[in-house]
């Protein structure tokens, strides 16, 4: 290195402004990614934390109870206002209320405020005043809370028994009946048991006193969960947060996708990506082998390569239109005419489904796999091919035992890029099979076990539907953030799996070549 002259230090030899610019670009990219993940994590995961419920007394004497959401400045600097989630939509027509900060006289957090999570109308907030059982027995005062917890635990057990009976006994036998079977005694007994469980869940109600002095009667059968956030310890809140995250991952959506979980969407996304990968990999690899190893390297081959690279830039909605016209209406309609004529005009394969969505995304990501695989094949030295042929191997043996194993990391790189793109696509799926609500996953215990004709849910479309088509966008936004974070994590897990497999194969192949 040259000595430093004066107060100006020269950059090390071989470096320059370009290197610092590249390093800065990488740093900014990582910071942007970290900021995105932090935003999704904070906004999404805080939704499951039991927030304290405030009792707000206004200057005019009016009272309201709710969870504080945010505080924003008023126009022209005239003050600030707060947004509270007050619940009780069946009473007030909305679950949100803006309050000017200057109009607030007092804010407290009484420990007896109760938050109910209901099947309909969302949350209810108030003080528990009475509990009436299905036999007419009424409990008031402090004894109502432990009685309510015991009754809700009993209702949870009854719901689980009802769902298990319906899913494991009744629905399989109903499907067998639709296929031409006879009604047996076990089905009649199961239906009678189901009616008994449903009757045991009905009856009973609780009474809430709202902050403004109103009364709200809620049937117990409509109550899913109940809590007193202001009386919960940090450990209790942590347990409740974990249970909320688990329900989000394991349950189905409800209330127009503004509540509940996303398990069907997780399953549908992963299954569709796996099917897409199985479909696109062999076709992409074979096409790359033909272009690089078999075809004459002339003008026509160069034109084909240019066309393949241009296909990678076609908007995804164009592939959706192609899939709708060719796969759904063309191939699917023909299959219905050949094999499902008795079911028409209700289509079986002539409508959107898991198979057509996977084929459409396979076509969408095919150029990525072809380009990545062909570049991997081009990097293999010609001496490897010539050495195999010189030792007496046929051209097929040379391709299958020498070239393809060495190009496997490049193939998996193409699959990784294909998975990353396909898992986040939404536009083509809207045309070829995704559904707003499909609580049953496309896999069950009935033959053929994997039902490719069924519609499915997708995390990307779930985000789009909850954010733009929900009746209450304000309530759906925390779930939108949580689902977006989950989609990023699902893509990350799928990519890491492929990367690990690529590294394993690359290491193994390198060890074999060293031997």
UniProtKB/TrEMBL annotation:
Family in the record: Belongs to the binding-protein-dependent transport system permease family. CysTW subfamily.
Subcellular location: Cell inner membrane; Cell membrane
Provenance organism: Halomonas rhizosphaerae
Principal place of residence: membrane
Keyword match Cell division: no
Pfam families linked to this entry: BPD_transp_1
Membrane topology: Multi-pass membrane protein
Xref: SUPFAM superfamilies: MetI-like
Domain ABC transmembrane type-1: 266-498
Protein name, UniProt field: Phosphate transport system permease protein PstA
């Amino acid at each position: 290195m040259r000595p430093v002259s004066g107060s100006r230090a020269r950059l090390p030899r071989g470096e320059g402004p370009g290197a610092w610019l590249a390093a800065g670009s990488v740093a900014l990219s990582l910071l942007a990614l970290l900021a995105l993940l932090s935003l999704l994590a904070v906004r999404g995961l805080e939704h499951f934390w039991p927030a304290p419920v405030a009792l707000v007394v206004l200057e005019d004497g009016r009272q309201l109870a709710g969870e504080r959401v945010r505080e924003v400045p008023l126009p022209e600097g005239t003050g600030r206002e707060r947004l509270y989630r007050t619940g009780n939509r069946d009473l007030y027509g909305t679950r949100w209320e803006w309050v000017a900060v200057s109009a607030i006289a007092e804010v407290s957090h009484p420990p007896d405020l109760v938050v109910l999570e209901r099947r309909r109308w969302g949350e209810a907030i108030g003080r528990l005043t009475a509990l009436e059982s299905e036999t007419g027995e009424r409990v008031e005062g402090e004894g109502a809370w432990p009685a309510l917890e015991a009754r809700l635990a009993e209702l949870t057990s009854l719901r689980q028994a009802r769902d298990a009976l319906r899913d494991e006994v009744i629905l399989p036998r109903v499907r067998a009946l639709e296929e031409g079977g006879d009604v047996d005694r076990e089905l009649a007994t199961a239906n009678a048991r189901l009616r008994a469980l449903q009757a045991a869940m009905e009856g009973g109600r609780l009474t809430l006193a709202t902050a403004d002095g109103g009364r709200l009667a809620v049937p117990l059968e409509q109550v899913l969960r109940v809590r007193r956030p202001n009386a919960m310890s940090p450990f209790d809140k942590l347990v409740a947060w974990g249970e909320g995250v688990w329900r989000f991952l394991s349950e189905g959506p409800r209330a127009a996708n503004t509540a509940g979980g996303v398990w069907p969407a997780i399953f549908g996304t992963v299954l569709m990506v796996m099917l897409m990968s199985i479909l696109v990999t062999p076709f992409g690899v074979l096409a790359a082998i033909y272009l690089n190893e078999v075809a004459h390297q002339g003008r026509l081959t160069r034109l084909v390569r240019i066309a393949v690279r241009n296909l990678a830039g076609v908007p995804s909605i164009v592939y959706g239109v192609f899939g709708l016209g060719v796969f759904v209406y063309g191939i699917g309609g023909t299959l219905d005419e050949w094999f499902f004529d008795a079911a028409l005009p209700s289509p079986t394969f002539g409508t959107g489904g898991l198979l057509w969505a996977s084929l459409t995304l396979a076509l969408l990501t095919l150029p990525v796999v072809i380009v990545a695989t062909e570049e991997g094949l081009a990097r293999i030295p010609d001496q490897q091919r010539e050495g195999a042929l010189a030792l007496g191997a046929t051209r097929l043996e040379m391709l299958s035992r020498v070239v393809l194993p060495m190009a496997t990391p490049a193939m998996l790189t193409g699959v990784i890029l294909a998975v990353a793109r396909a898992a986040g696509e939404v536009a083509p799926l809207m045309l070829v099979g995704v559904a707003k609500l499909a609580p049953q996953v496309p896999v069950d215990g009935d033959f053929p076990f994997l039902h490719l004709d069924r519609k499915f849910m997708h995390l990307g479309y779930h985000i789009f539907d909850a954010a733009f088509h929900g009746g209450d966008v304000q309530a759906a936004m925390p779930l939108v953030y949580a689902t977006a974070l989950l989609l990023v994590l699902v893509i990350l897990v799928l990519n890491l799996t492929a990367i690990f497999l690529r590294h394993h194969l690359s290491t193994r192949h390198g060890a074999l070549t060293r031997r």
